[in-house]
């Protein structure tokens, strides 16, 4: 076994295939996230969290801060700091919500829309490159197979 042998390969050789498959999914996810991080940073000056925030903002209409935070995995305070940095870069504008004076609406500037489109294109390129070894039919089959994986209690009422 070489020093670069993946843990998933070792598990597959001697352990349950379900655990090997799970480990392979984790390893592949980590590899993809690393690639996204490099591409977003080098091509667009964005972190993964910044990209996630940008891609979750509608390109043509403001969004309430509280609605945006619900679609992200960040705290409200972290989002506020991130949006301030975006505002300093000229990517977004923030205004008081006329319907809720305690709220804030965030909108992409034309520069923000352009950055969002460019980063989304880079995102798709990384994904298509990663999946280039699969046919469309195989990708569809992979989707169907992964859709069958369900943690106990997932999707059930409490």
Features of the shown structure:
158 residues, mainly alpha, three-stranded antiparallel beta sheet, 7 helices, 61% helix
Task: Note the topology.
Elements: H1 7-14, H2 17-44, H3 48-55, E1 63-64, H4 65-70, H5 76-88, E2 92-97, E3 100-108, H6 110-130, H7 136-147
Antiparallel strand pairs: 1-3, 2-3
Account of the protein in words:
The structure is a single chain. With 158 residues, the chain is mainly α. 61% of the residues lie in helices and 11% in strands. It is built from seven helices and three strands. The protein has a three-stranded antiparallel beta sheet with strand order 1-3-2. It is elongated and about 60 Å long.
How are helices and strands ordered from N to C?
HHHEHHEEHH
* Alpha-carbon Rg, integer: 20 Å
Are there runs of 5+ residues with pLDDT below 50, and where?
A: none
Report how far the terminal alpha carbons are from each other.
46 Å
Strand order of the largest sheet: 1-3-2
Give the mean pLDDT. Answer: 93
Structural class estimated from helices and strands: mainly alpha
- What oligomeric arrangement do these chains adopt? single chain
**Estimated helix fraction:** 55-70%
- Report the β-strand fraction as a percent range: 5-15%
Helices, by number, come to 7
Q: Tell how many strands the DSSP assignment holds.
A: 3
- What best-fitting shape do the alpha-carbon axes yield? elongated
Q: What's this model, at a glance?
A:
This protein has helices spanning 7-14, 17-44, 48-55, 65-70, 76-88, 110-130, 136-147; strands spanning 63-64, 92-97, 100-108. The protein has 158 residues and is mainly α.
């Amino acid at each position: 076994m070489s020093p670069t042998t993946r843990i998933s390969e070792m598990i597959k050789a001697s352990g349950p295939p379900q655990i090997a498959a799970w480990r392979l999914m984790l390893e592949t996810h980590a590899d993809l996230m690393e690639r996204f991080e490099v591409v977003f940073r080098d091509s667009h000056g964005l972190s993964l969290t910044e990209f996630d925030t940008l891609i979750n903002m509608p390109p043509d209409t403001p969004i309430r801060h509280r609605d945006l935070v619900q679609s992200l995995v960040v705290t409200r305070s972290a989002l506020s700091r991130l949006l301030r940095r975006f505002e300093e870069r000229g990517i977004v504008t923030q205004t008081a919500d006329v319907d809720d004076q305690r709220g804030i609406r965030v909108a992409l500037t034309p520069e923000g829309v352009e950055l969002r489109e460019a980063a989304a294109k880079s995102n798709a390129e990384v994904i298509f490159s990663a999946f280039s070894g699969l046919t469309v039919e195989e990708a569809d089959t992979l989707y169907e197979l992964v859709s069958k994986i369900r943690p106990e209690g997932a999707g059930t009422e409490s």
